[in-house]
From TrEMBL:
Organism for this UniProt entry: Gluconacetobacter dulcium
Residues spanning the signal sequence: none
Domain BioF2-like acetyltransferase: 126-244
Gene Ontology molecular function, alphabetical: transferase activity
Alphabetized UniProt keyword annotations: Transferase
Protein name: GNAT family N-acetyltransferase
InterPro entries: Acyl_CoA_acyltransferase, BioF2-like_GNAT_dom
Transmembrane region(s): none
Length: 299
């Protein structure tokens, strides 16, 4: 959290009998008068943590519902709230009955007991062929050099178009690296030219395909798929679940789906004030009118 926010985050603790039973880390910001409660930069999932003794499913669920209700009451006032839950998080229902919206994002996961060989068999044939072909033409290296990824990212998107906060990214990577939980993998062609790069981070359960970039003009296809393949092999070697870490476009979603794994829900908790909803509706109306008049003028 310190690396992602420079220490500018808040923690809400829920106690029972003097003992902490849950905590939740979050960031606050203001923009154009709107108050936001949001996850820190580059944080894919960050919900409340629960410190509960073992109990029957009903009793655990009841405790989580009570904790979440208290957490929502104690949060600062906001116009927009976003909490991204891990697929294994069991608090989405509790948030929903507190009146918050649940919107589902998707990711793909491979359990540690599923071998890379089985995954390769489950891949679409085209994906399987691309991985095999790329592995014969590209060399994959592993390093602790975040600059290798940054260079590739600036090839993928120029500095004027690139939206990455490289300073924050580097701080997060270095924080993970200090615990031996991060690496950069890169693919090079026969001329030793870098054509693709990815950043992997992991915890005690999951290895995440956190960030990726490529040279879109590279002549050898399948570089990204090869790096995913190498990443899932690393996860298997570490006995960790491999998480593809979602996607940002329809094309990427279809590419990840070609690895043959079922999509996994990653719930988002959304809260919004009436003012926020009105502003969104007004902006949507203005954009629709703008597009309408553009089409009218062209016609």
């Amino acid at each position: 959290m310190d690396a992602a926010t420079d220490g500018n985050y808040e923690t809400l603790e829920i106690r029972n009998g003097g003992n902490i039973v849950s905590d939740f880390h979050y960031c606050r910001k203001k923009h154009l008068g709107m108050r936001y409660i949001i996850p820190p930069p580059y944080t894919r999932t960050l919900g409340p943590r629960f410190f509960l003794p073992a109990s029957k499913p009903f009793r655990r669920g009841q405790k989580i519902r009570n904790i979440v209700a208290e957490l929502i009451r104690k949060l600062p006032k906001y116009d927009h709230l976003k909490i991204r839950l891990d697929p294994s998080d069991d608090s989405a229902f509790a948030f929903s009955i507190c009146g918050l919206q649940i919107r589902n994002e998707f990711t793909f996961r491979i359990a540690p007991d599923v071998t890379p060989g089985v995954v390769l068999e489950q891949c679409d044939q085209k994906t399987r062929n691309l991985i095999r072909s790329a592995s014969q033409k590209l060399e994959v290296t592993q390093s602790a050099d975040i600059e290798a990824f940054i260079r590739m990212s600036l090839v993928d998107q120029s500095a004027s178009e690139n939206r990455h906060d490289f300073a924050t990214m580097a701080k997060l990577f270095e924080a993970c690296l200090r615990h031996d939980r991060a690496c950069v993998i890169s693919a090079y062609d026969e001329k030793k030219k870098q054509v693709s790069s990815s950043v992997l981070i992991w915890d005690e359960k999951n290895l995440y395909y956190w960030l990726s970039a490529r040279d879109r003009n590279a002549s050898i296809p399948g570089a990204n798929m090869l790096l995913i393949w190498e990443a899932l092999k690393l996860a298997s070697a570490k006995a960790l679940t491999f998480d593809f870490d979602s996607f940002a476009s329809v094309g990427t979603a279809k590419m990840l789906a070609s690895f043959g794994q079922p999509p996994v829900l990653r719930p988002h908790v959304i809260g919004a004030s009436v003012r926020y909803e009105w502003e969104r509706a007004a902006n949507a109306t203005l954009m629709s009118l703008r597009d309408y008049w553009k089409r009218k003028i062209v016609a």
